[in-house]
């Protein structure tokens, strides 16, 4: 109904350029539009959400867990009818390859089903009684209230649902703002939301984040912010809250995950994993490997093999079979990559691979930069794209110092074959990051594993069961034992 409230619309452009006919120049495809709500309209959504939580339609937060589970089961069943359309929209809106778009959809369905299973166990565990000092209390797991969920463009469906579903199933009322790239794919789901859930418990917030999300935060009535995206956007949202220090938040932010390739590493394995880690979905993953420290004894061999592997990658539209590198969301991203490369060159780096640094509109060719100096921007900045900065080292203290001093602390990978040397590095790294990957790339999954980070990388932990805990609070119903005995 909201679409009729507002006069303004925001146009959604695909990252993919097409020619209208044989002689025309390629143009960016217009995919559609969505309403741009103003502050007043956003606040109406908040009011109706508060109403749905406190009294309207009454029942969502106090509904029996089994009944809320039934709603989510119905939703996930209906969602699967829309798979083809959602997968297609993922390809058009964010240029994710067909195979990866399907994986994102299937992983989301599995996440929802696993969440339901985890809740069944969590609920059993939490309906225990406590008895101490003549007080007997039942512990309940209750919702927080109104949760604002915002997911990122690189996993618009999956990472929106990794907070939205657990928040909802725990009895919260959810307002979710889809990312600006990856927004139209929610359209086929609106009908499923409506069919599966009571009115008012799930609300879509359309518009510019700075206007609509900030307006909600400024009221102080959002009980929890679940945000996955850039640290800058999270900071500015948090600052609009009247008491930011009291706000409950689940944040999945930036990272600069390093790989350390030791002299005794299996180079073939290290190259394969570093390539996947750095370039899957064009490097647009918070878990991507964003800087490689390679031992100087093997660095030349490593660079040669990595360049050869890059040449085998297929770069094309997401609709082509076996495509690996696809367009970036905007041409501005490409400009940013070129700036990073120029800057690294000023500090002595060279583009190592054939075609590295080349581009065409939203396409950007994977680029290896070597040797990257600590003064270069890419040594510290999260590139979120297909550039691989490589730093040679001969003393392990250099990569360890990098990780210790970094603003980020999500994950790291180590490649090697000497268990004693690796054990010492693991012991140092587990105090600095939240996952150490041995002879493999960094990654979030499987989704039942805890996923978090230190410093500017995350607040709170996401996993199927951690999310259920994060979006709930333990409340007590307590009585004097003597009174209970009497009645
Ligand atoms: O962008 C951040 C995602 O959490 C990465 O997830 O490792 O499964 O690709 P992934």
Automatic annotation (TrEMBL):
The keyword Oxidoreductase applies. It comes from the Bacteria. Gene3D superfamilies: Aldehyde Dehydrogenase, Chain A, domain 1, Aldehyde Dehydrogenase, Chain A, domain 2. Residues 30-472 form the Aldehyde dehydrogenase domain. GO terms for molecular function: glyceraldehyde-3-phosphate dehydrogenase (NADP+) (non-phosphorylating) activity. It is an enzyme of class 1 (oxidoreductase). The keyword Oxidoreductase applies. Its EC number is 1.2.1.9. Keywords: Oxidoreductase. Pfam families: Aldedh (PF00171). Belongs to the aldehyde dehydrogenase family. PANTHER family: SUCCINATE-SEMIALDEHYDE DEHYDROGENASE, MITOCHONDRIAL. This is Glyceraldehyde-3-phosphate dehydrogenase (NADP(+)). It comes from Thermodesulfobium narugense DSM 14796.
């Amino acid at each position: 109904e909201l679409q009729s409230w507002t006069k303004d619309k925001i146009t959604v452009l695909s990252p993919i350029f097409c020619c209208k006919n044989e002689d025309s120049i390629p143009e960016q495809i217009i995919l559609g539009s969505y309403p741009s709500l103003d502050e007043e309209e956003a606040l109406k959504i908040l009011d109706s959400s508060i109403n749905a939580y406190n009294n309207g339609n009454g029942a969502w937060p106090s509904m029996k867990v089994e009944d809320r589970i039934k709603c989510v089961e119905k939703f996930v069943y209906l969602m699967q009818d829309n798979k083809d359309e959602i997968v297609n929209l993922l390809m058009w809106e964010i240029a994710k390859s067909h195979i990866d778009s399907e994986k994102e959809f299937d992983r989301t369905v599995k996440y929802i089903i696993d969440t339901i299973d985890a809740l069944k166990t969590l609920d059993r565990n939490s309906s225990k009684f406590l008895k101490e000092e003549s007080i007997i209390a039942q512990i309940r797991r209750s919702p927080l209230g109104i949760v604002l969920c915002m997911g990122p463009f690189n996993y618009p469906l999956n990472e929106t649902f990794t907070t939205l579903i657990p928040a909802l199933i725990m009895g919260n009322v959810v307002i979710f703002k889809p990312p600006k790239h990856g927004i139209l794919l929610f359209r086929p789901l609106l009908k499923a939301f409506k069919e599966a859930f009571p009115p008012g418990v799930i609300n879509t917030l359309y518009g510019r984040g700075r206007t609509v999300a900030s307006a909600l935060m400024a009221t102080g009535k959002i009980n929890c912010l679940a945000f996955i995206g850039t640290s800058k956007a999270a900071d500015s949202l948090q600052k609009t809250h009247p008491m930011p220090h009291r706000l409950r938040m689940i944040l999945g932010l930036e990272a600069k995950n390093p790989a350390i390739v030791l002299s005794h590493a299996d180079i073939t394995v290290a190259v394969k994993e570093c390539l996947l880690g750095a370039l899957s979905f064009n490097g647009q993953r918070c878990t991507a490997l964003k800087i490689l420290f390679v031992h100087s004894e093997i660095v030349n061999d490593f660079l040669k093999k990595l360049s050869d592997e890059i040449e085998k990658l297929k770069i094309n539209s997401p609709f082509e079979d076996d495509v690996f590198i696809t367009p970036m969301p905007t041409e501005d991203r490409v400009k940013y990559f070129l700036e990073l490369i120029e800057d690294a060159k000023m500090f002595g780096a060279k583009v190592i691979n054939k075609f590295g640094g080349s581009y065409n509109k939203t396409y950007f060719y994977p680029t290896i930069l070597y040797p990257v100096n600590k003064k270069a921007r890419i040594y510290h900045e999260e590139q979120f794209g297909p550039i691989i900065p490589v730093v040679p080292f001969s003393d392990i203290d250099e990569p360890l110092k990098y990780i210790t001093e970094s603003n980020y602390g999500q994950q790291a990978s180590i490649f090697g074959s000497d268990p004693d040397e690796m054990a010492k590095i693991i012991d140092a790294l587990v105090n600095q990051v939240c996952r150490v990957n041995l002879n493999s790339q960094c990654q979030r999954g499987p989704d039942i594993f805890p996923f978090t980070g230190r410093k500017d990388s995350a607040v709170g932990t996401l996993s199927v069961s951690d999310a259920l805990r994060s979006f709930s609070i333990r409340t007590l119903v307590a009585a004097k034992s003597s009174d209970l005995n009497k009645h």
